[in-house]
From TrEMBL:
Keywords: Oxidoreductase. One of its GO terms (cellular component) is cytosol. InterPro entries: Aldolase_TIM, OxRdtase_FMN_N, Oye-like. This is Alkene reductase.
Amino acid sequence: MTTTLNLLSPVQVGSYTLPNRIVMAPLTRCRAGAGNRPVPMNATYYAQRASAGLIISEATQVSQQGQGYPNTPGIHSPEQVDGWRLVTDAVHEKNGRIFLQLWHVGRISERSFQPSGALPIAPSAIAAAGYETPRSLKLEEISGVVEDYRQGAANALAAGFDGVEIHSANGYLLDQFLRDGTNRRTDAYGGSMENRTRLLLEVTEAVIDVWGANRVGVRLSPAGTFNSMSDSDPRALFTHVAGVLDRVNLAYLHLVEPRADEEDADPNLAELTVRYFRSIYKGIIISAGGYDPELGHAAIADGDTDLVAFGRLFISNPDLPARIELNAPLNPYDRSTFEGGDARGYIDYPTLDLQPV
């Protein structure tokens, strides 16, 4: 008899057997402490959500140059590594698994975040809406960026994470290199799709050298237009990228679904769903983008994806897997507390009372 899979079914992801297919999505909450170091409150927040099959941490800059928002954590100083150790220890005490998301924002930054007040960097000197025009990264500087990711991966290992995810989505540096709307280079990192994919592949290989491929994931947003992103042929581009990554034997590919309710949604990109990429990428896929439990169960049962990442619902429901299992009501979330602030809207959402009467 065939058993229908759902969000609560166990799954093998890389070297780990996960108890369920419910992923805590990477969520920028802007609550790191001084020096962009995680603090005990951050450890409490993640530990509360350790019943997820897998936690993917908030985006974490691999260098000071990679920062673009206030109070986002880094993974490039000993103090930051120590802060993240508080988090991983707390999650592991609750038998959870947590991957660190490695991040460089590229042009989505300001001089105030940059070393010595320098201009942010990008593949080409093209500004995103609302941001200063960045400077084009010199060819001889690119190896340094790859090294920042490698060192960030090594620091994540030292901090006790179970793996890492490379953030190549949402209009940040690696995504900027992939798309011809932001990459007008004429050297080995621009022009053809192969050249534009080169940096992502070099970063992936560097991170795999630290972790092994079975503890590394990559996140893509093929239909994303956030942060002024565009490409002349996104279907061809991301078909190519997914095919290249399919040969690397990653732990997973994390895909952001087209979202019809997003202000920047492009109806011409609606075909770039996880179902489309299923025929190209043969490994484990995590899908993210506006799921509720019912949609998540259906996507897994239909074979469209292997795991589903929940963001906003995990913010307001730290015990989301238990609520899904019991079909219990979900707490509403408070958007005003998503980014920045204190414990309110961060570690004070109620959990179900699962104790016997």
